[in-house]
Amino acid sequence: MVNQYPIESGIKANSMICTVRAVLTKGNRVQVVVGAGAVGSVVARLLVEQGERVRVITRSGSGPDGVERIAADASTELTKYVDGATAIYSCAGPAYDKWTSQWPPLGAALIGAAEASGAVLVTTGNLYGYGAVDRPMTEDLPLLPNTVKGRVRTKLWTDALEAHHAGRIRTAEVRGSDYLGAGAVSPFSVTVLPKVIAGKRGMMPGDLDAPHSWTYVGDVARTLIAVAGDESAWGRAWHAPTPGPVSVRHLADRAALMAGAPKAKVAAMPGWILKLAGLVDPSAREMVEMQYQWQRPFVLDSTAATVAFGLQPTATDDALREMIGKGK
């Protein structure tokens, strides 16, 4: 697929400088993963399996086995830990209700660390920037966010992309829809799945029968690694391989069947209940502006990444089976 962000001569020169720097530090090279959540942990494990030296940076110092763990605030200390890095994987994020205050400094720190080290910065993104659309989402859609959080994510990406075009850094972004898989957090995993497995009624705001795309966390991780290792993939966004959309109701039915639970019971949550919950629960309060994603078809087209990297999406049943503890 043709890169939609042409690389100018100055950027090519910067890329050559970064390549030389990487060669000079090859003996000490490291892959830096910021965050050890559902995606970051898989990225780290896959890199270790490939024989890479991996450094994971989190506030708590957590991370999977086989990696170097650093306890640090990436918003203020990241540059200290990226010497010799060939890639920086941004897989962290503030709490949902802290986005406007904590994402800007973290985004600036990631750009600064990439510039200081010469490492390619590959960011885990999402679909908020597209806003409400009436067609399957592809990477060439304009970013027209209709929410506060969408504007935050758009600013993070445009800042990084401007630094890329200026030759200061090299970067790319990998976007996915709502996550499935071990450790995945989404409205479905919080308000529906535990209830269904327990034989109780789950509730979610929106149209329970609308087609909705679900992305497996492992496929996001594989795409991040593929993009980081392919210079022709830099300077643009990619959608992680994602299977065909299924409704919340269908997903709940499949989960109940796999878990050996009674037939799934799900109901549409009235908007006023979510707003009421938001009075005491910051996460629920932040979900109110995102309801548009659940009130109509929300479909991700990941053809570009599938063609470019030869990555096929993990089957939705396999991702769901992993979530309910039945293996994958």
Report on this model:
The protein has about 325 residues and is an alpha/beta fold. The chain has a domain at about 10-180 and about 215-240 and about 300-310: NAD(P)-binding Rossmann-like Domain (Rossmann fold, 3-Layer(aba) Sandwich). About 40% of the residues lie in helices and about 15% in strands. It is built from 13 helices and eleven strands. It has helices at about 10-25, 40-50, 75, 100-115, 150-165, 185-190, 195, 215-230, 250-260, 270-275, 280-285, 305-310, 315-325, and strands spanning about 30-35, 55-60, 70, 85-90, 120-125, 170-175, 180, 200-205, 215, 235-240, 265-270. A seven-stranded parallel beta sheet has the order 3-2-1-4-5-6-10, sandwiched between helices. Strands 7-9 form a two-stranded parallel ribbon. The protein has a two-stranded parallel ribbon with strand order 8-11. β1, α2 and β2 form a beta-alpha-beta unit. α2 crosses α8 (about 215-230) and α4 (about 100-115) runs parallel beside α5. The model is unreliable at about 1-25 (pLDDT under 50).
Short note summarizing the structure:
The protein is α/β, with parallel strands linked by helices and 328 residues long.
CATH class of the domain at 9-181 and 214-242 and 301-312 reads Alpha Beta
Question: How do the SSEs run, as a string of H and E?
Answer: HEHEEHEHEHEEHHEEHEHEHHHH
Helix percent band: 25-40%
Shape: globular
Mean pLDDT: 90
How far apart the termini lie comes to: 31 Å
Low-confidence parts, pLDDT < 50 over ≥5 residues?
1-27
Number of helices: 13
**Per CATH, what is the topology of the domain at 9-181 and 214-242 and 301-312?**
Rossmann fold
Strand content: 5-15%
CATH architecture of the domain at 9-181 and 214-242 and 301-312: 3-Layer(aba) Sandwich
CATH superfamily of the domain at 9-181 and 214-242 and 301-312: NAD(P)-binding Rossmann-like Domain
Biggest sheet, strands in spatial order?
3-2-1-4-5-6-10
- Tell me the structural class: alpha/beta
Strands, total number:
11
| Cα-atom radius of gyration | 20 Å
Describe the main β-sheet briefly: 7 strands, parallel
